[in-house]
Amino acid sequence: MAVSSAETTLESLDVTATAPLDYIDIIETVISSLADADSAQVSHTGSGTIWKFRYGQLEVFVQLTGSSEDDLFTVWSKVFPLSTPADASLLHRLLTLNWAETLEARFALYDDHVTMVASRTVADLSAGEISRAITLVASIAATYVDGLPA
Question: CDD domains recorded for this chain (predicted)?
Fold first, then answer.
């Protein structure tokens, strides 16, 4: 997924703690606390707002399709590429981790990569849930960026 030429760094946006919080303000505040220096970008597209930032070796994406109850808030990061077609052993380990260790996030297969993702509708979405989802995806993906331990 490419971020459009309309991207800007978060530092150029006026995000202050005294402004009334909305989803965009909350997302940008969380990203600014996690992102590597000068790595955060934002793009406004027909499918909502998409942020991209570096977290160590990873690129983390956050998408907000809108603010109605049926819109989606999604966070994802490619963790590691599949070097061969996924075998039953790898899928078994990923599903076991999904059950026991990833909390609201989950492993998925996307674009020939094992990807960490969290997604939910915007209905009753709180600032704490936004922060937790972004932090979970980034930190769990970073844990497994070099692959699953043997």
Answer: T3SC_YbjN-like_1
